[in-house]
Specification:
The chain is mainly alpha-helical and about 100 residues long. The protein has one domain. Helices cover about 75% and strands about 0% of the residues. α1 packs antiparallel against α3, α1 crosses α4 and α3 crosses α4. The termini are far apart. About 30% of the residues are buried.
């Protein structure tokens, strides 16, 4: 059960970092050619923040607070590297994370 919670926390960390990165114009343009609307950017920031918070909560369920916070910070670092390397290698892979955003006509 603990391993499943940590795997979910890792996935939420990666998703949160990716959504926060996609809220920035520079990274959005790597994935799509149009400009993100202001409401889309706000939704991406909200999704990213909630995902990172949920990841912290899952880490807190798995261990005591001092160890959980350390694991969460390490997950943040790993997730940031994963997202950064993916943006430099294949940024269009993140297009599935913004499936609801309509392309500009």
């Amino acid at each position: 059960m603990v391993n499943l919670l940590l795997a979910a926390a890792t996935l939420l960390c990666v998703l949160g970092c990716a959504w926060l990165a996609l809220a920035m114009d520079v990274h959005w343009k790597q994935v799509r050619t149009d400009q993100p609307s202001e409401s889309t950017a706000k939704v991406l920031r909200l999704l990213g923040s909630l995902s990172l918070f949920a990841s912290l909560v899952l880490c807190l369920f798995t261990d005591h607070a001092s160890m959980a916070s350390l694991v969460w910070v390490m997950l943040l670092a790993a997730a940031t590297l994963i997202v950064a390397f993916t943006f430099s290698w294949r940024p269009r892979l993140f297009s599935v994370l913004i499936f609801w955003a309509k392309a500009a006509s």
